[in-house]
Write a structure and sequence with these properties.
Helix content is 71%, strand content 0%. It contains two helices and no strands.
Length: 68
C-alpha cells in the first residue's frame, strides 16, 4: 500500500495525468461532433439551394417558340 501512495506523490508528466487525458478525449469528441455538424449543414444548404434552383426552372413557361 505504501508503494502505491508513494507512486502518486511528486510531479507527473502532463500527458500522463488522468484529468488531462479525459479533457483531451472530451475535446477530441467535441471536435469530431463540430466537424460532423458543419458537414451536415453544408449538405443541407446545398440540397436546399439545388431544390430552389430546380423549382425555378420547372415552374417557368415552356419554351415552344417553333410551334405557333
Amino acid at each position: 500500500m505504501a508503494g502505491t501512495y508513494i507512486d502518486r506523490i511528486g510531479f507527473f508528466h502532463p500527458i500522463q495525468r488522468e484529468r488531462a487525458r479525459k479533457r483531451r478525449n472530451r475535446a477530441f469528441a467535441e471536435l469530431i461532433t463540430t466537424a460532423a455538424l458543419l458537414v451536415s449543414l453544408a449538405i443541407a444548404v446545398t440540397a436546399v439551394s439545388v431544390g430552389i434552383a430546380r423549382a425555378d426552372t420547372l415552374g417557368g413557361e415552356p419554351n415552344v417558340s417553333c410551334v405557333r
